[in-house]
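Exercise: predict the structure of this protein bound to 2-acetamido-2-deoxy-beta-D-glucopyranose.
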Amino acid sequence: MHTSNPTLATVAVALLSALPTVSAGIYTKNSPVLQVDAKSYDRLVAKSNYTTVLEFYAPWCGHCQNLKPAYEKAAKNLDGLAQVAAVNCDEDENKAFCGQFGVQGFPTLKIARPGKKAGGKPVVEDYNGPRSAKGIVDAVVDKINNYVQRVTDKDLDGFLSTRNDSAKAILFTEKGTTGALLKSLAIDFLDVIQVAQIRNKEAKANALFGVASYPALVLLPGGDKPGLLYDGEMKKDAMVKFLSQAGAPNPVSGPAKPKAKKEKKEKASSKSSDAKSKTKEAAKEETTASAETPKATKAAEAAPAIPAITEPSKLIKECLNPKSGTCILAVVPSAHGETAEKALGSLSELAHKHAEAKRHLFPFYEIHSADANVAALVKSLEITKEVEIVAVNGKRKWWRQYEGDLSSESIESWIDAIRLSEGTKKKLPAGVLSEVVADETPQVEKVEVKIEDEIKVEVPTESESTSWQGAEPTPEATAAEHDEL
Ligand SMILES: *[C@@H]1O[C@H](CO)[C@@H](O)[C@H](O)[C@H]1NC(C)=O
Ligand SMILES: *[C@@H]1O[C@H](CO)[C@@H](O)[C@H](O)[C@H]1NC(C)=O
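Solution:
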């Protein structure tokens, strides 16, 4: 090859200089996945009071690259609840470290759960479940340490008088189980606030605190200070802030860096920011992982139109009955204008993309605003634009209105938020749902994961559910076989 070709020469040099001394990891700085190495493991994982799932990977490993989207999704789902971390075993300084964990193939996933004794070593177990966000999230949630006391009427006096000068937080709930969010609060405030939960049926306790609606979070700052009733949304950041009145939360990771846990910034309604909150320190100290996998998305090609429903009974059967799961409905004029075309085009693209990836997603339908039943729906929902996209869930009696531009990206992030059960849900007005008329095939109930069961908000309009039951039903699993190390 002639060096007279400057372009090729430059490329060759660039390639040479790019030959890794430090190989670029799969996860970039902005990834919600925490990057851990031999040096930072102790501080970020071993000393953390949080459970951490660790992926041991090599950048060249195809299964590792395939896992990335699901793993990042798991990281987002688990934000604030547990840590999702990755170790690049291809880096020289991590090789021995990965060896110590008995890593023999990539990716290897392990879950490190803090020992219950302070300062003890974490218990590390293999994760061999499905390589999907849901599989990982479920397994990790299952391994979050539980420091939440369940208090009954009988124990109440005892609970209130133990360490009676220290702060206590009580979640009054209809549920008998302890959800991940409450567990995570107990971890944040370990040794700072005693966290407990009391069921609604404990009459004496509920009466003592005058609790009448659920869930209700009460903070007893300790001593003679009066109890405080939380009146915000059941969302982690806001709850941490509320509880912080009684004492500062613990840092997420161990000392070494005096970077005490930055108060997790208020997640505005936008979900893009929460991805970042997690990476914080890790990204800072970690190797710059620069390799982005250039993923050629060819979603747009030949997406078939989403089905239109014009029959009232069909709409009831699919989406508007007390058993129906989530549906996305594009309410458009039957003579599509430009806006309608745009909305329908974006939805078709998304539906197609998911179908191609064999991912299960709720159905999308086009419905026509001039149809009498649709007009009635539009009226009850008080939606006003010529083209509206709404999500309805008959079974859970909520709906959501899409707001934003009609690009597929923007709609997709809204849909993702629904899948994760993030964002604002409104209560379906009475009369929107009808019973299905004579149909022998019962709607197959979707399997929904309930991670954060008891904290589900009762659905006043402005509230956002912290329940994660939407988690994700997709088989993003990659083959379970391992690459060679
Ligand atoms: C706290 O406990 C001590 C000792 O049991 C008791 O004397 C004190 O009255 C208690 N204070 C409150 C506010 O209950
Ligand atoms: C973990 O919990 C202990 C209390 O048991 C607390 O002192 C510590 O700050 C917490 N966080 C870390 C990173 O150790």
